[in-house]
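Technical appendix A lists one of the benchmark inputs used to test multi-chain prediction within the project. The record comprises two sequence entries:
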Amino acid sequence: MEQTWKQAKAAFAAIAAPPIAWLVLFFLVPMAVIWAYSFGENTGPITIDFTGTFANYARAVEPLYLQIFWKSLIVAGITTLLCLIIGFPVALAIAFASPRMKAWLLLLIMLPFWTNLLIRTFALIAVLRENGYVNFTLEWLWNNASGFMTLVGLQPLGEYEPLTLLYNNTAVIIGLVYVHLPFMVLPLYSALDRMDRSLMEASLDLGAGHLRTILLVVVPLAAPGIASGILITFIPALGAYLTPDLLGGTDSQMIANVIERQFKRANDWPFGAALSFLLMYLTFIAIAVQALVQRRSERRG
Amino acid sequence: MAKGKYLRGASRRSILQQFGAAAVGISFAGGLSACGGGSGGPTVNFYNWDTYIGPTTLDDFREATGTTVNMSLFATNDELFARLRAGNPGFDVIVPSNEFVTRMSQAGMLAELDHAQIPNMSNLLPEFQDAAFDPGRRYSMPYTWLVLGIGYRKSAMPAGFVPNSWRYLFDSPQFTQRIALLSESADLIRLCAKYQGISLNGIPDANLTSIEQMLIRQKPHVKAFHEDDGQDLLASGEIDIVLEYNGDMAQLMSAEGGDQFDFVVPQEGTLINSDCLCIPTGAPNPEGAHAFINYLLDAEAGQKITEEIQYPTPNAAVAARMGEAYQNNPVIFPPADVMGRSEYGAFEGDERSRLYEEIFTRISAA
């Protein structure tokens, strides 16, 4: 007879207790405190009364803040879509690489995690700024093209004008895609790797082209991986604050920047807590949608 | 010309330090628990801005008194406040700016100073012996003072042109997309009030509305709101004109290649800040803290600090020992008539900070 945990309650409790205690003590309790703050009122510079007021939430759903939420959703959405478009072929390539190559490619994907996010963002600044490596390269190409045109007797190109790549919304999206790409590639890879290859062979044998096989066979089979990849890319991208802070221009503010300022400059923890929990509710909705997708695809499979 | 040669991290308030400070803070927490072990002599835990102390000051103090100073770093007043909000984690001496001296003393977060233990207070200039933000200097000793102004690249200006008005930052397309503004809501709004010719304290609602509209109008011409790393943006060629502190610009200008930059305090006057030495409530070693504050106000120690950090000193004994290059530096000491039109920003309550913050959020979202 198969043993279930019900038959070994003591062993189960011994194993489960430490992680549960950890979760309660360092996750649920602090979260509950912040949640309680969101119903509180400032009574002094460092004192908050838990009055059960909904005023913070009322303020958080004012058009000003909803607009910033909406903008953050759009930015996170574009980031996720780009990560999916870039990440899917990468994951596919890794899944079909030789075992030796696979290990190296996975290492390359995970390599950026060895460096602190801040350092990586500053490195990106050094690449993208007007006196940065992208512009140096373009300037070099430009000057060589210009020299070549003089050589063949044409009018040389004018002075090179450096491109403005930083301090705008595009820079924020480039930064977010760069940071979140591994989060997309890894779940996609694990879904594609366990896929039954014979189904693809069958599809190819029965006359479907490569593109059709990918779209009609591989993508549906990888749907749970795609869903979890989207989720774990979208959620951190939605809460990004360092990237918009450092790479963004004057209109790149995202909701996490506003939340950070409530906890720091504005010294308004109750309002910051209300904004954070609105963000959290959005996250719960996203997780629920993902669970739905997963269940439906499991039922179909 | 070597590109990026002038990039330097040396800023009292740059974001790079903010995260460096977090790392130092972590190692410092370890240090705190370690020093409870009783190894070595007495210690003072000093929470300071980055690049804001002399190269040998802490060693000199240990040699003179046998007290070891553990220094850890913060990058903004808000960070300092947030760290101490839930109780003093073990600091003896902290360096808040004037507004935060008021805010923290009102919140009971600062201990009263015993002036008898700080005889070097007599070294201070007469105008710094007392302060409106801390009547009777009950909680704070001045360490430096600083002003906001306009840093710029000389070659990007028309011949002989000096951007000596806030207009070029706040209300003019002349330097479109070559401007960076400090992302401190209160500082920004207060300087706009200065530009409108009113006091930066107690700004009327009508002016707040027109300031918000002015900045929204100006936004398309502004490249970035910087996190007090404006001198780095200037040095890396990203912008030509920036709202920055005089000390940060003086550091940039004294570095190699710094002569291509200049700094001016606009004729309308500016916001003056003063960073102060304070003892937080619950400091483990108040006696050592007093001795350390007294040491920092000493003429010779102060001279070594000022030579390094290039900020204006409120200390008459230190100023007298500094050379002419420092005393007559118009970046460090702006002209008297402009200073006459400048003001300290008073702490006007948390409601006011929140209002300024919401205005800034609206400007950013517009």
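Chain A has a mean pLDDT of 89. The longest strand of chain A covers residues 40-42. Comparable benchmark entries are summarised in Table A2.
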